[in-house]
Amino acid sequence: MQTEFATIVEAIPPLLRGEEIYTCYFAGEESEFVRFNAGAVRQAGAVTQRTLSVDLIEGRRHAAGSLTLSGDPAGDRDRLAHLIGELRAMRAQLAEDPYLHYATEVRSSARRVAAALPAAADATAAIRSLARHGDLVGIYAAGAMHAGFANSFGQRNWDSSENFNLDWSFFHAADKAVKGAYAGITWDDGELARKAEASAEQMTVLRQPSRRIPPGRYRVYLAPAALWELMSVLGWGGFGLRAHRTKTTPLLKMIEEGVRLHPDVSLAEHTAEGIAPGFQDAGFIRPPRVSLIEGGSYRDCLVSPRSAIEYGVATNGASAGETPSSLEMAAGTLPLDRVLGELGTGIYVGNLWYLNFSDRAACRTTGMTRFATFWVEGGVIQSPIDVMRFDETVYRMLGERLIGLTAERELILDPGTYFQRSRDSARLPGALIDDFTLTL
Amino acid sequence: MSGDDLEAVAARFRGIAPAADACTLRLVAERDEHLAVRRGVVQPPRVGYDRGAMLTVWDGGGVGYAATSDLSAGGLAAAAARARDWARATAAIHVLRGLPPPILPRDGVYVSRVAEPWEALPLADKVDLLRREEERLGGDPRLVDREAGLWHTALDTLLVDADGGRVAQRFSFVVPTLSATANAGSDTQTRTFGGHAFCRQGGLEVLRDTGFLEAAPCIAAEALALLAAPECPTGVADLVIAPDQMILQLHESIGHPLELDRILGDERNYAGRSFVTADMFGRYQYGSPLLNVTFDPSRAGELASYGFDDEGQPASRVPLIRDGILLRPLGSRTSQLRAGLAGVANARAASWNRPPIDRMANLNLEPGDQSLAALVGAVERGVYVETNCSWSIDDSRNKFQFGCEWGRRIVDGALGEVVKNPNYRGISATFWRSLAGVGGEDTLQVLGTPWCGKGEPNQVIRVGHAAPACLFRAVEVFGGAAA
Questions:
Q1: Contact B419, B479 (CB under 8 A)
Q2: Are B404 and B389 in contact (CB under 8 A)?
Q3: Contact yes or no for B198/B176 (Cβ under 8 A)
Q4: Of A56, A398, B183, B267, which residue is 20 to 30 A from B415 by alpha carbon distance?
């Protein structure tokens, strides 16, 4: 798709008038999706899509638009010309935008990550073979994802990466299931089998009679996948400058009262280690790393170009939503093989689900346990538990009640596919927490 | 892209349709426009054009799809071949093996009813309108953020097969939004225009019909009032729920559990399963006898009204729960065949790049005969809540916890002081049995959300909900702050 992008970019300058300039962003994918239920294929198909977004600027007036490209150069040029004409007409009706901000320093780049992907039918066969471990449900997504940027100043950025992401569950019965994930750039049947075996081991515990526990406070271990759910809801305004300045950040007490998390908690947007493009739609290049929380204290925000002008600070290449794409939490010192021993009697939480804020200003969250969540006694997993609702503040979970973070971390590649396949990732430890509040 | 253009693509498709048991082409062409004014500044307007095609092939017992934005004959042919490859590759291993493909009507048509077209008002006038409404949110220094917005979508879909089947539908959606955020120290409170739920099919008349043009001063005043309000009390209390929270309650704890693909297990890896099982239909007491819930894609103006679903099945109003008894799932033709249950026409896709799955479309709670004053008057000690701001429910759609923007105590049958951070929790399987009062037509509001997520690959879609105010007995309520 890089050639298609280059071709359509060449078509833009002849369409401009007077002092007009442009920025444009390209997003594309060539994906195979195979959905499974009960070990069979529920839906299988391919999606090829390409979208070009253009900001048409003259002075401080501008209007933005996007269109789906067909891949036919002549047809796409005609539709682009129509869009630019419409944007010009819109712009004429608008006042100057005081927060318009785009990159003027040319910083071009190119990155291509090729993968060793199996034929989709072969991957399907390999995945279906896992159904010997249990009732298999899930989604396999694979193929190329592309992003590009260009502007009137001659900056050109391109990022292509191929990868696969298999996100599956083995169900025992009803809601008793274990989750598995296998994602990367080099498909290996053996590695998949090993991951499936590990999930299957947890299935043996799931077959034990389920334990129903009453609401109360429990010592818990949140596995990295569970902590990722918590980080995802925290990322919803937690680290953006706009949320910070409009006082809508859930970390408001850290800003207003100097409340701190546990000294072991350090969070960063680590673009250099993630799989998201290193540029954004106004042409700014993301720094390799932005420290968000360091040693338990609030550090820096993610700053979009608009927020940078509105609040008078420099942008660090954040997207308009100012949410992390490559979140990293520092490792702790608790060895993974000592987690159950340190947990003693309590709950091993494999995943959390459907988190939201019950009091945003207090950073109080609620959500459910899901998938492999077990009752532990004497450092030994005993049985699955029925799903439970929690309601806790992040200040307790990652502050006063945090016992420790694991020394080992997991790289989680987001399997999300809203609108297009996600390029978000996170590298997170597990967290051992005391007095975790379960309410229902 | 106009409807005529879609017809031209359909004609190309008929020339390249592959040799297979069946093949359909679903075309989507969409134009959307976002306008907003925030803190006195016009945000850059955004207009988007999206168009593409999904080809679905049934062959030898398998089913495959391919979605492409290349609408040339070559592009369609390549996609058809890809879809057929997937159909053949899954012939022996597909969940749908042996099930017949859908049969499309010969000339299905649906068009949103529009009184005042979006285009009738120039952009500059729309921006002026938003400026005015945003200004009317007020200049109190405690208001740290204010925004007014409009989102319009014009959507054409055309579903055809190689045998002359044809369904053409044209939609117009309008989503008006307002929000005011007030801050004092470590407390921040936000009030919105119904949680952005005042979204409808139609044109600019939606702004008048939903009350958008009168809402701003009240929203700002209530955001400020919340700063001074005490926390919602904690305990078991009667709860009167306004329509802009009732729709969330309905959506999460009736809509999703009744989706037949969830009951069949398709969603277990992501959106979840359901506490409802196939044997419950026709006999299960879902709620009190006051509970009546209807699938109604025929209600003019509601967000997810349509004439046909994305499998081309004609859609009509169907009772799902009557007098508290569960009658029928939200299951499309495909799911009905799999489950052996009657359902509704609700196979829907988010766009051309996603395959249809069971969605709730318009799911409505039928009104009763009580006024809001009567509902409140029936409560000795309780809480009244408005406008959803937090939603969470387990993967079986049972244990829920919801939060609202606005609450008021109810004391001796009258609304009392404002309370902030009102939350409540319960269990779907028992919660609806505590329904003790249903508001009449005068309390009913036609609302919806453009943001219902589900499916693998993920899809976000519009759903409509109409609901009156309702009274529930003995609910666990609580406020914010300390956990």
A1: yes
A2: yes
A3: yes
A4: B183
pLDDT tens for chain B, 483 residues long, are 555 699 999 999 999 999 999 999 999 999 999 999 999 999 999 999 999 999 999 999 999 999 999 999 999 999 999 999 999 999 999 999 989 999 999 999 999 999 999 999 999 999 999 999 999 999 999 999 999 999 999 999 999 999 999 999 999 999 999 999 999 999 999 999 999 999 999 999 999 999 999 999 999 999 999 999 999 999 999 999 999 999 999 999 999 999 999 999 999 999 999 999 999 999 999 999 999 999 999 999 999 999 999 999 999 999 999 999 999 999 999 999 999 999 999 999 999 999 999 999 999 999 999 999 999 999 999 999 999 999 999 999 999 999 999 999 999 999 999 999 999 999 998 999 999 999 999 999 999 999 999 999 999 999 999 999 999 999 999 999 865
Question: Are the beta carbons of B396 and B272 closer than 8 angstroms?
Answer: yes
Residue B141 distance to chain A (closest CA, Å): 12
Instruction: Please check whether residue A13 is in contact with residue A24, taking contact to mean a CB–CB distance below 8 angstroms.
Output: no
Residue B371: what are its φ and ψ, rounded to 5°? Answer: -80, 165
Pairing of strands B470-478, B435-438: antiparallel
A41 has a chain B CB within 8 A of its CB: yes
List the beta bridge partners of residue B445.
B467
Q: Three-state SS for A86? A: helix
CA distance B169 to B6: 11
At a CB cut-off of 8 Å and minimum separation 6, what does A347 contact? Answer: A213, A218, A219, A220, A221, A369, A373, A374, A375, A376, A385, A436
Closest to B48 (Cβ–Cβ): which among A65, A75, A354? A65
Phi, psi (rounded to 5 degrees) for B292: -135, 120
Cα B69 to Cα B9: distance, rounded to the nearest angstrom: 11
- Å from A414 to nearest chain B CA? 12
Residues in chain A within 8 Å Cβ distance of B223? none
Give B4-49 as a DSSP string. HHHHHHHHHHHHH--SSSEEEEEEEEEEEEEEEEETTEEPPPEEEE
CA distance B99 to B101: 7
Look up the pTM and report it.
0.97
Task: Return residues 125-184 of A near B (CB < 8 Å).
Answer: 128, 135, 137-139, 141, 167-169, 171, 174-175, 177, 179
Query: For testing the chain B interface, which of A23, A25, A31, A47 should be mutated: the one with the most B CBs within 10 Å?
Result: A47
**What is the C-alpha separation between A21 and A57, in angstroms, rounded?**
5
Q: Using a CB-CB distance cutoff of 8 angstroms, which residues of chain B are in contact with residue A68? A: 49-52, 69
Contact yes or no for B188 and A247 at CB 8 A: yes
Angle at A362 between CA A361 and CA A365, to 5 degrees: 105
Are the C-beta atoms of residues B381 and B313 closer than 8 Å to each other? Answer: no
